[in-house]
């Protein structure tokens, strides 16, 4: 089991983000803390999880919450299930709320891994107007090399110097366990500037890097500017080149490309994210959180997809009245579960192992479904896919094309 507590509040609206987040004049943290604690206890009891493998505090901007809140939630989790001493406990942190004393407070509270977003510098081929603050963040996007023009474009509230300082402070407090997020595909970004920014990021980074393409989300200020013609959208072939450039540079720097968007060296893989890609159980706690688990505690025997109530005040009322704020529950059919196992597992370099597939499909093996003539066999002949004693996985070249390979594989699975 992997609990994922969500802190839904942000201090500012970022131009690119459409996550479930709220900017409010004041947060009743004591009430939010009590509800996170209660919902964590309730859902862990429902899931009957015996041991917790990892905890991930996401958001919103969870680093705006106090270390006391993290400690209370971790205490509740440890009281409801076994939380091993070495379990990975990650916090997404924003540079503007990541001063060394504050980070140390999180460490004392039980956080042992930090995820800090980093936007790379000099990415704009021409000056752009600052985006109006109309839509806030989720994955935190700090930055070392971030230049301040880009930060304005993204609607961020911190400066490049703050971002650099935050990463350096984090590495001192969480050595080998500080992850940075790199984002590419900004309007006006050039390939050369991206490569130079990556070089600077490689000098700053620790042993884990996540790489994200900026997506234009409906309802965000950045999307409105691009679709309205104020800012240029980067062409698809440039985006593909930027991704390949990053992969090549990171692997050359000693990183293992262990998932489509994630790179680790010295064994610093994200335990929590691996639990998603391996289709293990995870429990979403807090407003808008998502989960996948079997509710054994209430007589359930099938894996469910769960979503908690989005709006924080409504969610708190539900938690106070019935112990949790689950808004939507969908029982996943055996086929839907296998579709998730396939789509998520193929994102990793280990792929879908025979053992994991057998857990969800005891009567129909990987060979029975994908060894027969069909899409998978053709993709193997073309060199994109491998099916062998280890399981089914993409070759390195196939990872970049996964979105185009999956539909055919899912069709073959549905026929099987």
Automatic annotation (TrEMBL):
GO terms for molecular function: 4 iron, 4 sulfur cluster binding; catalytic activity. GO terms for biological process: porphyrin-containing compound biosynthetic process. Transmembrane segments: none annotated. One of its GO terms (cellular component) is mitochondrion. InterPro entries: Coproporphyrinogen-III_oxidase, Elp3/MiaA/NifB-like_rSAM, HemN_C, rSAM, rSAM_sf. Pfam families: HemN_C, Radical_SAM. Residues 1-256 form the Radical SAM core domain. This is RSAD1 protein. The gene is Rsad1.
């Amino acid at each position: 089991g992997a609990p994922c507590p969500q802190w839904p509040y942000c201090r500012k609206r970022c131009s690119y983000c459409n996550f479930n987040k709220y900017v409010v004049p004041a947060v009743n943290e004591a009430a939010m803390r009590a509800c996170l604690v209660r919902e964590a206890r309730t859902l862990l009891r429902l899931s009957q999880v015996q041991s917790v493998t990892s905890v991930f505090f996401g958001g919103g901007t969870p680093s705006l919450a106090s270390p006391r809140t993290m400690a209370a939630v971790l205490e509740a989790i440890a009281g409801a299930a076994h939380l091993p001493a070495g379990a990975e406990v990650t916090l997404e942190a924003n540079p503007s709320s990541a001063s060394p004393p504050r980070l140390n407070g999180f460490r004392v509270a039980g956080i042992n891994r930090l995820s800090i977003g980093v936007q790379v510098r000099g990415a704009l081929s021409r000056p752009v107007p600052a985006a109006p603050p109309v839509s806030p963040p989720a994955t935190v996007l700090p930055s070392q090399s971030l230049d301040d023009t880009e930060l304005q474009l993204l609607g961020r509230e911190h400066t490049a110097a703050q971002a650099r300082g935050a990463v350096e402070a984090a590495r001192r407090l969480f050595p080998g366990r500080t992850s940075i997020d790199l984002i590419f595909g900004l309007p006006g970004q050039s390939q050369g500037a991206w490569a130079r920014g990556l070089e600077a990021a490689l000098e700053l980074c620790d042993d884990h890097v996540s790489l994200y393409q900026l997506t234009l989300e409906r309802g965000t200020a950045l999307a409105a500017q691009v679709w309205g013609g104020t800012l240029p959208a980067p062409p698809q072939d440039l985006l593909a080149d930027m991704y390949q450039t990053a992969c090549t540079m990171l692997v050359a720097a000693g990183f293992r490309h262990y998932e489509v968007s994630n790179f680790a060296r010295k064994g610093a893989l994200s335990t929590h994210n691996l639990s998603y890609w391996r289709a293990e159980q995870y429990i979403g706690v807090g407003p808008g959180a998502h989960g996948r688990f079997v509710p054994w505690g209430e007589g359930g025997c099938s894996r469910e997809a769960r979503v908690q109530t989005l709006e924080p005040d409504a969610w708190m009322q539900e938690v106070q009245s019935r112990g949790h704020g689950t808004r939507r529950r969908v029982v996943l059919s055996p086929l839907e579960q296998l579709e998730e196992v396939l789509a998520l597992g193929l994102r990793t370099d280990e792929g879908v192992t025979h053992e994991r597939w057998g857990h969800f499909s005891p009567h129909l093996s990987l060979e029975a479904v994908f060894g027969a003539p069909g899409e998978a066999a053709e993709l193997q002949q073309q060199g994109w896919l491998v099916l062998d004693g280890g399981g089914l996985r993409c070759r390195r070249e196939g990872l970049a094309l996964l979105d185009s390979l999956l539909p055919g594989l899912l069709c073959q699975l549905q026929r099987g």
